[in-house]
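Annex B. Sample input.
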Amino acid sequence: MTLFDNLSIYLTEAELGEYIARLGWKFDSSTGVVEVPPNPDNQITSTVVQEDIKLQRMFRPFLFHHRAHCWP
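Annex B, continued. Sample output.
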């Protein structure tokens, strides 16, 4: 089901064409596609999210003692 099919339930084909033209949109009847020009509400923008995650240390680091492996 296309936008045209959904709106045509409430509007006649002529009313729908007028509505689309009034909004500055374009309707391709061969494909059923309504083209909406760019505006502030439909601009594609990238968003960069940076997170600072601190992990608790789960173990005590192994400390190498210089005398640990020495023979007496």
